[in-house]
Amino acid sequence: MNSEYKSLPLVYACSGCSSAAQLANHVAVRLDRQGSAEMSCIAGVGGDVPALLKVARAGRPILVIDGCPLVCAKRSLERHGITPDKHMQLAECGVKKRLHADFDPVEAEQVLAMAKETAASLERGEKRSARAQSERGYGERVQPGL
Prior knowledge:
Layout: E1 10-13, H1 19-33, E2 38-39, H2 42-46, H3 50-56, E3 62-66, H4 72-78, E4 86-89, H5 105-123, H6 128-135, E5 140-141
Parallel strand pairs: 1-2, 1-3, 3-4, 4-5
């Protein structure tokens, strides 16, 4: 891992089989590749992998991007007592969950822009109030903007 990534927020994403889930994963990968956040493995958190739990518990700000109201990525972290600082649930942003279909690339760019701004706010340190809320079990949801 590049050392510059260690100062970035972590991003976890749903990566299920629906179009919304794949959009969430796509956006998280793009945030990682563009250097806006470091993507970590939600499957490893769900699978109780010690090294990946250590990353999740390291105290870095966390953004979770879930594709639908099932919020699987957020719940995987919460199983381990970890509440994200920011949470994007794409159905609340108007993203439709479709099975056996790809996500809309135009919609993906809109979601990416919102996620990039959210990650930037975490990197600027705007996580403190959300972190205080998360200690009481309330992470901050990102409001729909599409």
